[in-house]
Amino acid sequence: MRRTVFNEDHEAFRETIRAFIEAEVVPVYDEWFAAGQAPRDFYYKLGELGIFGINVPEEFGGAGLDTHKFEAVLYEETSRAGVQFGGSGVHVLLALPYIKMLATEDQKKRFLPKFVSGEEMWALAMTEPGTGSDVAGMKTTAKLSEDGTHYVLNGAKTFITGGVHADRVIVCARTSAPSAEDRRFGISLFAVDTKSEGYSIGRKLDKLGLKTSDTAELAFVDVKVPVEDLLGEEGKGFYYLGHNLASERWGIAFGAYAQAKAAVRFAQQYVQERTVFGKPVAHFQNTKFELAACQAEVDAAEAVADRALEALDAGELTPAEAASAKLFCTEVAHRVIDRCLQLHGGYGYMNEYPIARLYADNRVNRIYGGTSEIMKSIIAKSMGL
């Protein structure tokens, strides 16, 4: 089917990214996989390539664009090659919208040039042990000092992608207790320097998938955060978090669709090369029917993901539409990747084959950014149920 979502600029970017992946990532990806993270200097290469600055204003060293379409190309090309760019997706998809939306001019001058170059990698610390999707239940606190020059941060966070290499982390913390009427009241956001005294990285978590993106536990013991590093207004953090969830959920939806598309490609190649009973596996009717069914599902997911992308770029993607796209695309990817792994037989279970890594990487899509159950609740509420 002919797509209309991308133009010549996006396709030229695609060629650049594909060549970069082949030259800089594929030859060393097994080393990253074994190490459990991409090396820190890789992010400088992404900065040099201009990936971090696409949506950053020109005055701060970026390209000054306002679109998620180049990110979409990245999702497709990394999935196509069976690789991940470490924790860099969090840097761009999660952290940047908060900086652009909330940072003062002074903060943008301090933060954005280093953000673009990769000198300062960013992460987002929202989830806490025991709270999961219940953001309003967070216990981490940030109390203003008596002289009003800084906040004192105490608490812990977990499942923080990019947390090992991060130089700055947007930390969600309570600056006041929840009110009786609103549990979400009193949360604020801070751009915390990870070199601060009292800031520590706990375990680098051993995940089922996404092996090359570093995910960590973080702890804060009397960390002094200058008042100049408060992002936005005090107490409005929950509103800010909700505002950016649509773009985060679009990213997960599009990434899941791209993984499903890649799975079909991997399976199609495999069944044409692998012979059983003297014939290519692709010769058997079951193989043809399975791949045809998977392709039909991928076509549908592509249409949903593209529609959500256009709505996001137009500033019109609603929370319910983002939830619907995430629910649909992640469920499709789950079914498609499972069926494509099955076509690989026993080899599909081996990590040396990209389909096995894809299977593990994909599983979290129905959990993070809001579980599938949360997505159904959002959709149901929009239906008046």
Count of helical segments? 11
Portion of residues in beta strands equals 15-25%
Mean pLDDT, to the nearest integer, reads 95
Specify the helix fraction band.
40-55%
Mind summarizing the main beta sheet? Answer: 4 strands, mixed
SSE sequence, one letter per element: HHHHHHEEEEEEEEHEEHHHH
Describe the structure concisely.
By secondary structure, this protein is an alpha+beta fold.
Describe this structure in words.
This protein is an alpha+beta fold. It is 49% helix and 15% strand. The strands form three sheets. The protein has a four-stranded mixed β-sheet, with helices on one face. Strand 9 and strand 10 form a beta hairpin.
Could you name the key traits of this structure?
385 residues; four-stranded mixed beta sheet; four-stranded antiparallel beta sheet; 10 strands; 49% helix; AcylCoA_DH/ox_N; Acyl-CoA dehydrogenase
Q: Secondary-structure blueprint of this entry?
A:
Blueprint: H1 8-25, H2 29-35, H3 40-49, H4 69-81, H5 88-102, H6 105-117, E1 122-125, E2 141-144, E3 150-161, E4 168-174, E5 187-193, E6 199-204, E7 215-226, E8 230-231, H7 237-273, E9 275-276, E10 279-280, H8 285-313, H9 319-343, H10 354-362, H11 372-382
Parallel strand pairs: 1-4
Antiparallel strand pairs: 2-3, 3-7, 4-5, 5-8, 6-7, 9-10
